[in-house]
Design goal:
By secondary structure, the chain is an alpha/beta fold. The protein contains 14 helices and 18 strands. It folds into two domains: 232 residues, Aldehyde Dehydrogenase, Chain A, domain 1, CATH 3.40.605.10; 188 residues, Aldehyde Dehydrogenase, Chain A, domain 2 (3-Layer(aba) Sandwich), CATH 3.40.309.10. 41% of the residues lie in helices and 18% in strands. Bound molecules: nicotinamide-adenine-dinucleotide. Nicotinamide-adenine-dinucleotide (NAD) binds next to helix 6 and helix 7.
Length: 456
């Protein structure tokens, strides 16, 4: 028996004590998690600064504060979510009552990426705890300082038979995938998502995939251009574009292109300064491999703004490229960096047709004041979720399930969706023993005729 097998066995034993099934246990665990994050807040912010040069403001808003909200939301609603859901019973089942019970899966494996290394590791754990599961977390190896703090924080707060962290890279992840977990929750790239699904298929493990892809942003001629520019600049360049739901590329209506580009330049300068390479608060690129990958895009099209890089510190300026088309390198794959390619359009239908030629995106952002245009884009393109007249903000509402569709993922979480994802819905019919309607039995006289009265 290897160490992961043994660890999982311990978790399953703990799960079968039924402790995690008690609602008060879950609420207490969520509260402990909240207090532990509070305790480690400073250390976490320092770790995020080391790993990605995240500013305190970014670290708090996008990694820590968002989790406080999620934990509080779960605590507030847990009693109501865990109540058996009494549903109707059809006439054919007279005498019985019907319920849906939310049952925890058991021991769940959570595999996390590096771009929001704390938030994306802990947010699924909140759902898993709320639903009554045990968790093994494999955080990203590319943000080792944050992963260490995460490990310390969780192992100090919870016994490992309940929640435990396994640090390591691809081999560790692959070794864990061989174990018979009851649920697999993966956040990361499309290519690794396929590896996860293959591994899950081998054991028929239910799975959620939170993946990425190229998320379009469309600025229509009737958009509020000034606000559009500011919200796009923020959504794209937060975390130096290393956000799964960042606008990947932008289509702007030819009629307003020049005016929009002027506003966009203004907004980027306002938000990130004249010398972004020296901006102490601008997030760095995760490593040299990604830095080189991104730098190769900088020769595409024409550089409207930015383009500067600092390889020693792994910084790339917020960059806007114009005169781009789909054959450019930058349009090949998810960019995941501070580079915004811009294309123009005359006819919105052409944009819709083009987007529909590509894998279904995780997010889509439309800037338009017209309800008709909003409805058209929303219904004619399939994508995970998104915003109208904003970018990335939908992700932080606990009332909105967050997830992809098609190549951008399957399943969702955040708020109630997280609880649902980590719960099996068990349908139970409680039958009466006071009487027994004979209709279903094969020896009833004129049985077929009678049953036809009900099943027609
Ligand atoms: P990644 O897929 O390279 O790695 C994610 C995790 O998988 C890491 O823990 C890593 O150790 C593990 N892993 C990597 N290769 C593996 C392999 N061959 N076998 C088994 N495990 C393996 O992703 P990343 O580079 O850390 O993150 C960036 C990607 O994640 C982007 O595509 C981004 O869009 C996506 N993402 C999606 C969301 C979302 O919520 N949908 C959020 C953040 C990031």
């Amino acid at each position: 028996m290897n160490k992961y097998n043994e660890m999982l066995k311990k978790q399953k034993q703990f799960f079968f004590t039924d402790k995690t099934k008690s609602v008060s246990f879950r609420i207490e665990a969520l509260e402990k998690l909240l207090q532990a994050i509070k305790k480690y807040e400073e250390e976490l912010m320092a770790a995020l600064k080391i790993d990605l040069n995240k500013s305190a403001f970014d670290a708090y808003t996008t990694e820590i504060g968002i989790l406080y909200q999620e934990i509080k939301f779960n605590k507030r609603h847990l009693k109501e979510w865990t109540k058996p859901n009494k549903v109707k019973t059809p006439l054919t089942h007279t005498g019985s009552k019907s319920y849906i019970y939310a049952e925890p899966y058991g021991s769940t494996l959570v595999i996390a990426p590096w771009n929001y290394p704390f938030q994306l590791a802990v947010a699924p754990i909140i759902g898993a705890i709320a639903a009554g599961n045990c968790v093994v977390l494999k955080p990203s190896e590319l943000t080792p300082t944050t992963s260490q703090v995460l490990n310390k924080l969780l192992s100090e707060t919870f016994p490992e038979e309940y929640i435990c962290v396994v640090e390591g890279g691809v081999e560790t992840s692959q070794a864990l995938l061989k174990e018979p977990f009851d649920y697999l929750f993966f956040t990361g790239s499309v290519s690794v998502g396929k590896i996860m699904m293959e591994a899950a298929a081998k054991q028929l493990t239910p799975i959620t995939l939170e993946l990425g892809g190229k998320s379009p942003c469309i600025v229509h001629k009737d958009a509020h251009l000034k606000l559009a520019a500011k919200r796009i600049a923020w959504g794209k360049f937060t975390n130096a574009g290393q956000t799964c739901v960042a606008p990947d590329y932008l289509y702007v209506d030819r009629q307003v292109k020049q005016e929009f580009l002027r506003e966009l330049q203004k907004s980027i300068l306002e938000l990130y300064g004249e010398q972004p390479l020296d901006n102490e608060d601008f997030t760095h690129i995760i490593n040299v491999k990604h830095f080189n990958r991104l730098s190769a895009f900088l020769t595409d099209g024409e550089t409207l703004l930015g383009g500067g890089t600092d390889k020693d510190r792994l910084v790339i300026e917020p960059t806007v490229l114009t005169n781009i088309n789909w054959s450019d390198k930058v349009m090949g794959d998810e960019i995941f960096g501070p580079i915004l390619p811009i294309m123009e359009y005359e006819n919105l239908t052409d944009v819709i047709n083009e987007v529909n030629q590509h894998p279904k995106p995780l997010a889509l952002y439309l800037f338009s004041e017209s309800r008709k245009i909003q409805g058209q884009v929303m219904t004619q393109i399939s994508y995970g979720g998104g915003c109208i007249n904003d970018t990335i903000y939908h992700l932080s509402s606990p009332h909105l399930p967050f997830g992809g569709v098609g190549a951008s993922g399957m399943g969702s979480y955040h708020g109630k969706a997280g609880f649902d994802t980590f719960s099996h819905k068990k349908s139970i019919m409680k039958q009466t023993t006071k009487f027994d309607i004979p209709l279903r039995y094969p020896n009833v006289k004129d049985g077929l005729k009678k049953i036809k009265l009900f099943l027609k």
